[in-house]
Specification:
Elements lengths: L1 E2 L2 E2 L3 H4 L6 E2 L2 E2 L5 H17 L3 H15 L5 E3 L1 H7 L3 E6 L10 H13 L4 E6 L3 H13 L2 E7 H6 L1 H9 L3 E5 L6 H15 L3 E3 L10 H24 L5 E5 L4 H8 L7 E9 L10 H4 L1 E5 L2 E5 L24 H9 L3 E6 H15 L5 H16 L4 E6 L7 H8 L3
Helix pairs in contact: 3-5, 5-6, 5-10, 6-8, 10-11, 14-15
Length: 405
């Protein structure tokens, strides 16, 4: 399939290019020492990603440790309440550790072992990436440092406890807004001093090349499974595919299975409290081109051109930029990026819980909220949502802030 001059039959061979660009987005914008580290990671990844031994080991881990494939569930009661449109969810909440993050963390940790590294370093917002990497580190016998903003530590206490139980060193970041951006800043600073003995396992499709590509590749199992499962279940492709987007790892993985199909694809960003700068984290809808954390993408900027303060009820979405591939897909129009606010998200959180017995992560509830809006507009058809994580981590926060509805 061709779309706006892009041949999606060869898309994954063509993008990113050798310099790590998706069109004008991506690249490597870091100091020379870290450039050498990124080149080492790139070379190692391209060496082993086609290796039968590596592929077989990853497949074994996914089946025997992660519990893949995760199923697709038909949300029959929710669908019937809304009308004739049928909503389905890809159950990444049933992946081991409760979210999609383990898909790339096990791959990154396996790569670290191959490279002879002794430690993995990462940032986390909602805590799911931190838990997943701590899990992978325990599995492979690696040391693990997780950097997390103090605001998110307070909101995500259950995941902080999980990381510590798994043996990770959770390092509190108090600078600035003390959320995901500051955690990334701190993790990069630590990595610049330890890169010879460790690997920075970036938690999304962001950062310098090769991470946007590598994380997408590891996460593509979600879309590959979902496409096969949905066609087996229904005999056809979904009309619409939906996923939430912060940095964008779950969305990149889900979309990978459907980019070459005649399917509408929507990425859902957090509008938070509203359109005012500082009240949302919708960089693809309201941002402009900019460089941060080693890559060029669409970014929310303040009056000085620096990364702007952002907000979302979901700790995993409050990041002032998004992955370069999402910026590229946005510009060419292959994926439509839209927003839902906090109130719509919390309403969807309770609807899914009450009608289907599935408590979603607040991040995933953004995608569910948008599917609900679409279902009300569409007269017929089907929507497949990537339910990227479960809501155990969010329950105390939701009850404290919003009460039981």
């Amino acid at each position: 399939m061709k779309f706006n001059g892009i041949d999606f039959d060869t898309y994954f061979k063509d993008y990113p290019n050798e310099e790590g660009y998706f069109g004008k987005y991506g690249g490597v914008y870091i100091d020379e020492n870290l450039k050498q580290a990124m080149e080492e990671i790139t070379e190692a990844y391209f060496t082993i990603c086609k290796s039968r031994k590596f592929i077989n080991e990853l497949r074994r881990i996914r089946k025997e440790f992660q519990g893949r494939p995760t199923p697709i569930s038909h949300l029959e009661r929710l669908s019937n309440k809304l009308g004739n449109v049928q909503i389905y969810v890809k159950r990444e909440d049933l992946n081991h550790t409760g979210a999609h993050k383990l898909n790339h963390c096990m791959g990154e940790a396996l790569l670290a072992k191959y490279m002879g590294k002794k430690k993995v370093i990462a940032e986390t917002g909602a805590g799911q990436h931190g838990v997943a990497l701590a899990t992978a580190a325990a599995y492979f016998g690696l040391e693990c440092d997780i950097y997390m903003g103090s605001v998110d530590i307070q909101k995500q206490a259950p995941n902080v406890a999980r990381m510590k139980i798994l043996g990770a060193n959770v390092i509190e970041v108090t600078k600035g807004d003390a959320t995901l951006k500051e955690a990334v800043d701190a993790a990069f600073e630590a990595y610049s001093k330890e890169y010879k003995d460790c690997i920075y396992c970036i938690g999304s499709v962001v950062g310098p090349h090769p991470f946007p590509m590598m994380v997408r590749d590891f996460q593509s199992i979600v879309g590959i499974e979902a496409r096969s499962q949905f066609t087996e279940m229904t005999g056809e492709l979904p009309d619409v595919v939906v996923a939430c987007v912060g940095g964008g790892s779950n969305a990149a993985g889900m979309f990978a299975g459907f980019l070459n199909d005649p399917v509408e694809i929507y990425g859902v960003e957090p509008l938070g409290r509203g359109k005012k700068l500082g009240d949302h984290a919708a960089s693809l809808n309201y941002g402009e081109e900019g460089i941060m954390h080693g890559f060029n993408s669409l970014m929310l900027k303040d009056e000085l051109g620096n990364p702007a303060p952002v907000y979302s009820v979901a700790s995993g979405l409050d990041y002032p930029s998004s992955g370069p591939e999402h910026a590229f897909l946005h510009d060419i129009g292959r994926v439509k990026y839209d927003v839902v606010d906090d109130e719509e998200t919390i309403e969807a959180f309770y609807m899914l819980s009450r009608l289907e017995g599935i408590i979603p992560a607040i991040e995933s509830a953004h995608a569910v909220a948008y599917a609900i809006k679409l279902a009300k507009k569409m007269k017929k058809g089907s929507i497949l949502v990537n339910l990227s994580g479960r809501g155990d981590k969010d329950m105390d926060y939701i009850i404290e802030k919003y009460g039981i509805r």
